[in-house]
Amino acid sequence: MSQTIQPLQHWTITYPEKFIAIMDTIPSIGHDKELRTITAGMPDVDTVFHYEKLEEGCYLFIVDMKAKQETTYVMHGDRDTEFYCLSYQRIQGPVQKTPLAKSVDAGPLESKVLSLPSLCSFYNNQFDYDTHFVEGAAVKAFIFCFTPAWLATTIDLSTADAQAEYVKVIHKQSSNMSFLSDSFYKHTLTELDNLVFNTPRTAIYNLVLKKLSLTLISDFFTIVSEPQSVINVDPDEQVKAGMNRIMQYLEQNVRKGFPGLETLAEMGGMSVSTMRRQFLRFCGYSAFDYFREVQMRYAFEQLKQGVRTKDIALYLGFKNSGNFSRLFKERYNLTPAEMKKMN
C-alpha cells in the first residue's frame, strides 16, 4: 500500500498490487509470498506489511510500524492510481499524524483526531499527511483498499446524501474523513487480528477472513450513511473554539487535578451534555479520560529524560505511585521502569 521513494522517510500511498510489484524489485526487501508478508527493516522504523486479496478490486493491507528512534514519515497519495482506503488504526505511544494540506471542511482539531489511539479513516488518493513517531511508538493499521469499480458494485451512490462526508471523499471534494471507532468495530477488529496472525490456515480461513473484513467495511458505510450520525453533523465554529479552549487548559494544567465537568463546560461556553458529546467526537475520550491521557503523555516524556517515577507521580497529583504505574502500563503496555530501561 506504500511505495518507497527517496528519501526513505517519504512514502507514496498506492494500491496494493502496485506496491507489491514495486517491492519485488528492491533486493533489500523481504517478501514471503506464501505468508503474504513483506518486511522492510529500516534504521529508524521496523515495518512489516501483510496483504490478503478479498475480492477482485478489494484488498486487506495491514501495516505494522514501530519506531526505533524519533522520526517522521511523509505520506503522499498516488495521484496516478485510482483507489480508496478504509483504515482502522491502533496507536501505541505518542504518534502525531498531521494532514499536509487541510481539506476545505477541516477543523483546527484535525491533527488531534488523526492521532487518536483507535481511529477509523476513509480517504482517497489525494490524501497527504505526515506521521511523527517518538522512540518506541507504534502504529498498526488494518487498511481495506478498493478500486472505484469495486466500490460502485458495493454502494448505490444514487441514493446517497451528496453532503455526507464519505460521499465528498468518494467524489474528491474532500480527501479524507476520520473519527473514533471503538464503539462499533473493536471486537470485530480483534477477531480479524487474531485470525490473520494467531490462527492456523484452515479450510475456512478465507471464508472467515472475508466475513470479518466485509463486516468492518459494511459497519463503516452503515454508520456514515446515517444522516443524523454525529460524524455527519458538523459542529459550529463556536463549539470548535470552545473545545480548543478546554483542551488547551487541560494540556497546560496537568498537575492541578481534574477541574470538573461543570467548570470545563462553562470554560467552553456550552452545556455539560454538549461538551460530553463533542469531547467524544473530537478526542475519542471523555473529558476526564482525555485529562488522564495528557498526564500519561507528560509522564512518558519525563521518563525519557530520566525523571524518577515517584517524582512524576507526585507532580501529577498521584498520592500512590503504584496507581500511577498501573495507569501508565494500561496506556503504553509497559511499566515506567520498563520505559526507563529503553533509554
Core attributes:
single chain, 343 residues, alpha+beta, Arc Repressor Mutant, subunit A, 2 domains, eight-stranded antiparallel beta sheet, five-stranded mixed beta sheet, 13 helices, 13 strands, globular, disordered N terminus
Query: Residue-averaged pLDDT, rounded?
Result: 82
Low confidence ranges: 2-8, 103-109
Count of beta strands: 13
Number of helices: 13
The secondary-structure class comes to: alpha+beta
Helix % is 40-55%
Distance between the termini: 32 Å
Residue fraction in strands = 15-25%
**Shape estimate:** globular
The arrangement of helices and strands along the chain is EEHEEEEEEEHEEEHHEHHHHHHHHH
Q: Going across the biggest sheet, name each strand in turn.
A: 3-4-5-6-12-8-10-13
Rg, alpha carbons: 21 Å
Give the domain tally. 2
Report the major sheet. Answer: 8 strands, antiparallel
